[in-house]
Design brief:
The structure holds two protein chains of two kinds. By secondary structure, chain A is mainly alpha-helical. Chain A contains 19 helices and four strands. Chain A has a two-stranded antiparallel ribbon. Chain A has a two-stranded antiparallel ribbon with strand order 3-4. The longest helix of chain A has 32 residues, at 146-177. The chains are: A mainly alpha, B mainly alpha. At the A-B interface, helix 1, strand 1, strand 2, helix 10 and helix 17 of A face helix 2, helix 3, helix 4, strand 1 and helix 9 of B. Chain A: It is a multi-pass membrane protein.
């Protein structure tokens, strides 16, 4: 790849062939789906609007991009760098203008009306630019041998490890002080509460997937158990958040054991589909068991979180104290949000702390050993079922805590919050973060949950961008953002490991 | 003898309903089975759960629907020609989606850790759903039935009629024909041989001159083609397409693939038909709300006693 071809003609022809092929594929993909937009008219009749202009633009722009990308990967760097750079600036600039509502946007000659669609094509231009820059870097370094590449990989793993140990405390300090900085207004802290909930869920699932190597696609079920436990305890029996927190965790862990017991002898993807099925079963039961769970409408009027007995209310009932009257403060709605924020930080840090400690205990060692080689573990006398069950139960317990917190934050729970997509997002956080890396999980949660919050204005494109980002990060860093996943303990120290990936 | 007579009467009374559920179950099962083949083939060859497959099916359904509408505006009203056009165009264009998804989101990740393609597939699934929502709008699309009517199979004294719709006959026959063709393709052609070789040992196959990339691409193309046929069927059968219809069908089909033993083609079809029948009978005799619970529970039960599914080969552990 790094050798510069003596003549660039074959490369250009090759790129042209690729581009021609791309024209065909883009045409096939978009002809019906984009070219014919169906619309439902009155009386259930349907008609369509033709948008062949959009199809033709896609058939022109994407092959050009492909052409330049092949050139950049083949070592012809200048045209892709220049054109990619110009297109990036132009498309993103225009998109920013359009999103800001500038009248200038209408004047610019652009392929699409929608600013976001132009921005998505701009992302393609970034790719070309990145490929050109990478080509330049490779050329400067010269040809790499296998040993050099392995050394580079080891260096990266070391950097990731060091980054984690530096980044971790910095992130914690940042998280603690951010409400007191000028950026910490109510909306931001509210979003951060959500992010921290997912950080906690990610850390919880990390025990199951990252440490024990069990693929769980129904993690959200335990989150739901925790949320509904608090909801029911609060509504029916008048429990406060703090009283029901341990019960919610215990119940979720019990569900983990109940599910795990029959199915944990299944391997890999069989386990994945059973956990997925379990998640769906819980959701269906929540929807249909009207008398107990309130059905699709869910349960409302759950007691909100209180400050160890002091509610956050503007007008406390006569004879009782509220948070602001007790401390002699002016009532502010931010009190509750800030308190929620610190509660979830503490809960998440407990999860983190427990995980780190467990890793060093016999059970944690057994999880990691089981992940690497189940047969060997059995030969050494580790009971795989019990070991897996513990991982499942502890992971489920933390999901139960998080669920309970979720109910206390919202004051309302419904089955809609516990769909499969939630499980998928939590799993994506664990994998994108680099399995086993606690800081990586936090970063991935910040990215995957924070990004849609930032993009809230782009309503329609929000989830499109979300899905696309998931794919792109995976392509960019297949091992996760902070990838190092070695067993904590190795027989002969840190030797080069030739196997990567979950073995289950 | 009195009780036997009684029993006979009872059976005679219940039979039409039973037959009706059987017909519905087989139709549903055909659709699930066709989608399940896509899951099972991809799993067999590269060992990943292709979560975007349900959305490929959804795109197939949309494209079949659009072809049908275009037929309407072009004045093509002869039903067999309509069906043929839907089949050919939807299969070809959906296969292009299958190919592109593999090329963009999975091929660069081949040989990395096992969960990376899974996450990429989940991202792709979210992307495709929202892409369709953007380009086709969020509202469900009603499709007017093209094939209606049917033959009466059984009639009960109180007027309940078990009917076998012409559409149901078309669906089941088409599925059987596709399955037969597909079995031939896998067992008799060089492509099928290459596929089976890649399934056993990808590296060895490539050393022996099998073009692994091309074989995997074609696997995705075929899986997407079959999903498009399923999408076309469901467009004709229910005629209510929306952008997240692929999720439920995908999960059901994946369950079917696992139930039959993932990696096994006859298993996928068997699993699909079983899931279809379970759903139909459960909705018929018990409550429709819990039909998915029933399907998943039976999956768990089967897996407890046969951990590799009904027709799956037991895994050989290598140490």
């Amino acid at each position: 790849m790094t050798a510069v071809p003596s003549t660039s003609a074959p490369l250009v022809i090759q790129a042209a062939k690729e581009a021609a092929w791309t024209i065909l594929v883009v045409g096939l993909l978009s002809f019906l789906m984009v070219g014919y937009q169906t619309e439902v008219l009155q009386g259930q009749q349907m008609s369509f609007v033709n948008r062949f202009g959009d199809v033709i633009w896609a058939m022109v722009l994407i092959p050009i991009g492909r052409f330049l990308l092949v050139l950049a990967r083949g070592g012809l760097l200048l045209p892709p760098a220049v054109l990619g750079g110009i297109a990036t600036l132009y498309l993103f600039g225009a998109a920013v203008l359009g999103l800001a509502g500038s009248p200038l946007y209408g004047q610019l000659p652009l392929p699409y009306d929608q600013p976001m669609v132009n921005a998505i094509f701009g992302v393609g231009a970034v790719f070309i630019l990145a490929a050109a820059i990478k080509g330049q870097r490779d050329r400067r370094r010269g040809a790499q041998t296998l040993e050099m590449r392995e050394a580079a990989e080891a260096r990266q793993a070391r950097i990731a490890r060091n980054m984690s140990s530096i980044l971790g405390p910095i992130l914690i300090v940042l998280a603690i002080v951010i409400p007191w900085t000028p950026w910490g207004d109510r909306a931001v802290v509210d979003s951060l509460v959500l992010v921290m909930t997912y950080v906690m869920l990610g850390w919880g699932l990390n025990i199951v997937v990252g440490l024990a190597g069990l693929l769980d696609l129904g993690y959200v079920a335990f989150y739901a158990v925790g949320a509904y436990t608090y909801a029911k305890l609060s509504i029916a029996l008048g429990f406060t958040f703090w009283e029901s927190l341990p019960i919610a965790g215990a119940l979720a862990a019990l569900f983990g054991v109940l599910l795990g017991f029959p199915v944990l002898r299944l391997r890999g993807d069989y386990l994945a589909i059973v956990t997925l099925g379990f998640g769906e079963i819980i959701r269906i039961v929540l929807i249909n068991w009207q008398s107990f769970t309130g059905g699709p409408n869910g349960l409302g009027n759950i007691t909100r979180i209180d400050f160890f007995g002091l509610p956050f209310e503007r007008n406390p009932a006569p004879g009782t104290e509220s948070f602001h009257t007790f401390f002699g403060l002016e009532f502010a709605s931010t009190h509750r949000v800030f308190f929620l924020y610190y509660v979830i930080i503490v809960l998440a840090l407990i999860t983190n702390f427990v995980t780190i400690r467990l890793r060093k205990m016999p059970i944690g060692r057994a999880w990691e050993a089981l992940r690497e080689d189940e047969t060997a573990c059995r030969a050494l006398g580790i009971n795989p079922t019990n070991t897996k069950l513990t991982a499942f139960a502890i992971g489920a317990m933390f999901a139960g805590f998080a669920g309970s917190f979720f109910a206390a934050r919202q004051g309302f729970v419904s089955p809609e919050s516990f769909t499969f997509i939630e499980s998928a997002v939590i799993l994506a956080i664990v994998v994108l973060g680099g399995m086993g890396s606690q800081v990586g999980v936090a970063l991935a949660a910040l990215l995957l949950i924070g990004l849609p919050e930032v993009l809230r204005d782009l309503s329609l494109y929000r989830m499109l961008v979300f899905g696309g980002v998931m794919v792109l990060i995976m392509l960019w860093r297949p091992k996760g953002l902070l990838a190092y996943r070695e067993p904590t303990l190795l027989l002969h120290g840190r030797r080069k490991r030739n196997k990567a990936g979950v073995q289950s | 003898m009195e009780w036997l007579f009684e029993l006979f009467h009872q059976v005679n009374y219940e039979l039409p309903k039973f037959v009706q559920f059987l017909i519905v179950g087989l139709t549903l099962g055909s659709i699930y089975g066709l989608i399940a083949i896509g899951y099972t083939m991809v799993y067999g060859i590269i060992g990943m759960i292709n979560f975007a497959h349900g959305d490929i099916y959804m795109i197939g359904a949309f494209q079949a629907m659009i072809v049908l509408l275009i037929c309407g505006t072009l004045g093509i009203s002869w039903v067999p020609l309509q069906l043929l056009l839907m089949l050919v165009v939807a299969v070809a264009l959906t296969a292009a989606y299958g190919w592109s998804v593999e090329r963009i989101a999975y091929r660069p990740l081949r040989g990395t850790q096992r969960l990376a393609p899974l996450i990429s597939a989940i991202g792709m699934s979210i992307f495709l759903q929202n892409y369709v929502q953007l380009v086709q709008g969020p509202r469900p699309k009603p499709v007017e039935p093209v094939i209606s009517g049917g033959v009466t199979v059984l009639t009960r004294a109180d007027g309940f009629v078990a009917q076998l719709g012409y559409l149901q006959i078309v669906i089941v026959l088409l599925t059987v024909a596709l399955m037969a063709g597909f079995t031939l393709l896998i067992t008799r052609t060089s492509l099928g041989r290459a596929q089976r070789a890649c399934e056993q040992d990808m590296k060895m196959a490539s050393l022996l001159g099998v073009n692994v990339d091309r074989t995997i691409s074609l696997t995705f193309v075929m899986g997407a083609g079959l999903a498009a046929v399923a999408g076309m069927m469901v467009t004709l059968y229910w005629g209510n397409n929306d952008f997240h219809m692929g999720f439920n069908a995908g999960i059901k089909a994946f369950t079917a693939a696992v139930l039959g033993g993932i990696g096994s083609l006859p298993g996928a079809m068997l699993g699909g038909v079983l899931i279809g029948l379970i759903e139909a009978f459960w909705s018929g005799y018990f409550t429709a709300e819990y039909k998915d619970v029933a399907a998943f529970s039976i999956l768990v039960l089967v897996l407890i006693f046969r951990p590799t599914g009904l027709l799956g080969r037991p895994e050989v552990e290598k140490v």
